[in-house]
């Protein structure tokens, strides 16, 4: 959906149009889920997406349209994910196996990739340094421009370009040397 249409929905939703809120969520949900999937555990993606939309709906009256609705939503999702990580580091973790099927479904809810391919892609992205993974997912998976990604991440556009380039290098290196886990650094 074009950004102008999403902006119109956001303004209508801010005025209290419930159908516009529903339509805005429906039209952006896939981007938010795809953005959050590599940033958190598969079990938390849906909850973090819901929290993103709760915060976004509360903030709609202050949406000024200085950036696209997608950029605005992904910036909120980024803060939600960061808050979740901060909270998770304060409490003990429960050991368990990752749910790769949920990760595959969250990363591409309408696609049916082969399980092995999704697992490999998720593992490669997980091994990237967090800043590189974030920049790569925002630009290459969610499809935001480098300028919009810089706004979401709160850093200069050159930093985003550098992080994406280094993420690509790390991914290529990992594909050629799959035993080199965790080599990517910030």
UniProtKB/TrEMBL annotation:
One biological process term in Gene Ontology: DNA-templated transcription initiation
A Pfam match: Sigma70_r2
GO molecular function: DNA binding; sigma factor activity
Domain RNA polymerase sigma factor 70 region 4 type residues, every copy: 120-171
Superkingdom assignment: Bacteria
RNA polymerase sigma-70 region domain ranges (all copies): 24-90
SUPFAM superfamilies linked: Sigma2 domain of RNA polymerase sigma factors (SSF88946), Sigma3 and sigma4 domains of RNA polymerase sigma factors (SSF88659)
Keywords: Sigma factor, Transcription, Transcription regulation
Stored NCBIfam families: sigma70-ECF
Family from the record: Belongs to the sigma-70 factor family. ECF subfamily.
PANTHER family: ECF RNA POLYMERASE SIGMA FACTOR SIGC (PTHR43133:SF61), RNA POLYMERASE ECF-TYPE SIGMA FACTO (PTHR43133)
Name assigned to this protein: RNA polymerase sigma factor
Organism field: Mangrovihabitans endophyticus
């Amino acid at each position: 959906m074009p950004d102008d249409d999403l902006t119109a929905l956001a303004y209508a939703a801010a005025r209290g149009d419930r159908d516009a809120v529903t339509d805005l969520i429906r039209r952006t949900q896939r981007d938010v889920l795809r953005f959050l999937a590599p940033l958190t555990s598969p079990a938390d993606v849906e909850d973090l997406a819901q929290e993103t939309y709760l915060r976004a709906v509360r903030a709609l009256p202050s949406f000024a349209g200085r950036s696209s609705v997608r950029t605005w939503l992904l910036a909120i999702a980024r803060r939600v994910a960061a808050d979740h990580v901060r909270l998770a580091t304060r409490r003990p973790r429960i050991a368990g196996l990752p749910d790769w099927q949920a990760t595959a479904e969250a990363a591409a809810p309408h696609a049916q990739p082969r399980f092995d391919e999704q697992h490999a892609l998720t593992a490669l992205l997980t091994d990237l340094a967090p800043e590189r993974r974030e920049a790569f997912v925002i630009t290459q998976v969610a499809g935001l421009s480098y300028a919009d990604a810089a706004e979401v991440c709160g850093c200069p556009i050159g930093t985003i370009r550098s992080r994406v380039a280094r993420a690509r290098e790390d991914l290529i290196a990992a594909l050629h040397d799959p035993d080199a886990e965790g080599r990517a650094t910030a």
